[in-house]
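Worked example 4.2. Below are the chains of a multi-component assembly; read each line carefully before continuing.
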Amino acid sequence: MAYRVLLVDDSPAMRSFIRRVMVLSGFDLDECIEAGDGAEALERLQQEKVDVILTDINMPRMDGEELMRRLSEDAELRDIPAVVVSTDSTRPRILRMFGLGAQGYIAKPFSPESLREALEKVLGCET
Amino acid sequence: MTVHVRPTEAELGAAVAEAARSVLETMFFAEVEACAPLTAEQQQNMTGVAVQFDGGMRGEFLIGFDPRVAGVLASGFLGADEADVSPAEVEQVLCETANMICGAALSHIEAEDHMRLGTPGPADAASGFASGGWLQEFFVTPDGNIVTGVRLG
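Applying the procedure described above to all two chains together yields the following structure tokens:
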């Protein structure tokens, strides 16, 4: 089964890197939909169905914490698994993001394998 | 109540050095080794990026790249030929590199605390480092040098 991923990061370079690494790691990617911040991610989710969300935290306009909060409050969106990808790997931050409903947390820098494993884990699949 | 203990220079330097190695090797597949301090002349033409941070610690992170290294890193990160990578894309990649190194180092030092990173932006590495007060680490790659600096406020 191929998966549709919503990738939320304000850095076009990082979005390009993650998209490429998902493919190189062997993850079965159907389509990668991109958003530059949490607000754009919510707009895209009104139009697109996705299997998993990968989100950065530190972004302008609406950050990853607020995005997770909005997702958790939305009955139609709260069941989409979300994985945080961030440079911030402090314990309080990780606990806060899991508390907001994140199902995975990848600290940058990360290897292609760790990205694939995190996606497989939240999707309950083997690629 | 969180009691914040300021790290020693050795702890901070080791955290930045390990973060730089880890980011460059894991995300860029770059060969990187620590090297002897560079002279001011050797840092003269470096492309720089600065990041402000606060939280448990407040300060500034500055990184300088030899122009050749900057192009090679951007090309590798984006999976594109160097000739096809625009200056704006090089800048994006260097800003992301600075963000990752600074974030990884602070997360290590402040694992039980909190931190906030500002938006990374282009900076004049030579004059920045010349302003003094930096704890610097020096690296060599097959394509040139990289210098990092941290200055606590």
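Take a moment to check your reading of the output against the notes. Strands of chain A lie at 3-8, 29-35, 52-55, 82-86, 104-107. The first strand of chain A starts at residue 3 and ends at 8.
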